[in-house]
Amino acid sequence: MGKGEQAVKIHPTAIVSEAARIGEGTVIWAYAQVMEGARVGKNCVLGNGVYVDRNVRIGNNVKIHNKSCIYHGNVIEDNVFIGPQVCLANDRYPAHDTTRDLKGVSWRVKNGASIGANVTVLPDVNIGKNSVIGAGSVVTRDVPDNTVCYGNPAKVKGSVKRRTKTIRRKK
């Protein structure tokens, strides 16, 4: 390790593929699983029981809370917060006898987005830059940058002004 670099910390119960790339300063907690081909950036935290599927891309300074599942096809940009038990799905029509071909397919959680606890984001849905998704929401459509969305299905309910970290709700 070079001067100024921080060690990667992986709990002994975590399963991290040797074919995954983990950035410096990242912490992976108990029972987390990071599959082959996944890339996790610098200074990230993957909480207890987090599942990162194969070939998922996670940027720098990302916090993913306990029991969240990030499935193949997802790209998470920098400075993203993902609350506990969030599911970023990858197949809108799953069936026991078929597997969706995800070669060359991806969708994004963009820089600075925050996703609350127990949110489900359907596949092929992009979450906009600096957006906030309220707890328990089911996100079925793309979320624009700098918006607050919540509900089932999630709808735009306000805007985010990131410089002051204030949220403005529609009246």
Brief write-up:
This protein is mainly beta. It has one domain (9-93, 105-169): 3 Solenoid (UDP N-Acetylglucosamine Acyltransferase, domain 1).
Q: What order do the helices and strands come in, and which of them pair?
A:
Elements: E1 9-10, E2 15-16, E3 21-22, E4 27-28, E5 33-34, E6 39-40, E7 45-46, E8 51-52, E9 57-58, E10 63-64, E11 69-70, E12 74-76, E13 81-82, E14 87-88, E15 107-109, E16 114-115, E17 120-121, E18 132-133, E19 138-139, E20 147-151, E21 154-161, E22 166-169
Parallel strand pairs: 1-4, 2-5, 3-6, 4-7, 5-8, 6-9, 7-10, 8-11, 9-12, 10-13, 11-14, 12-15, 13-16, 14-17, 16-18, 17-19, 18-20
Antiparallel strand pairs: 20-21, 21-22
Can you identify the CATH superfamily?
Hexapeptide repeat proteins
- What percent strand? 25-35%
What is the top-level CATH class? Mainly Beta
Count of beta strands: 22
As for the CATH topology, it is: UDP N-Acetylglucosamine Acyltransferase, domain 1
End-to-end distance? 53 Å
- Helix proportion: under 10%
Pattern of helices and strands: EEEEEEEEEEEEEEEEEEEEEE
Estimate the mean pLDDT confidence.
Answer: 92
**Helical segment count:** 0
Radius of gyration, Cα only, in angstroms?
Answer: 16 Å
What does this structure look like?
- By secondary structure, this protein is an all-beta fold.
- 0% of the residues lie in helices and 33% in strands.
- The strands form 3 sheets. It has a 10-stranded mixed beta sheet with strand order 1-4-7-10-13-16-18-20-21-22, with no helix packed on it.
- A hairpin with a 2-residue loop joins β20 and β21.
- The termini are far apart.
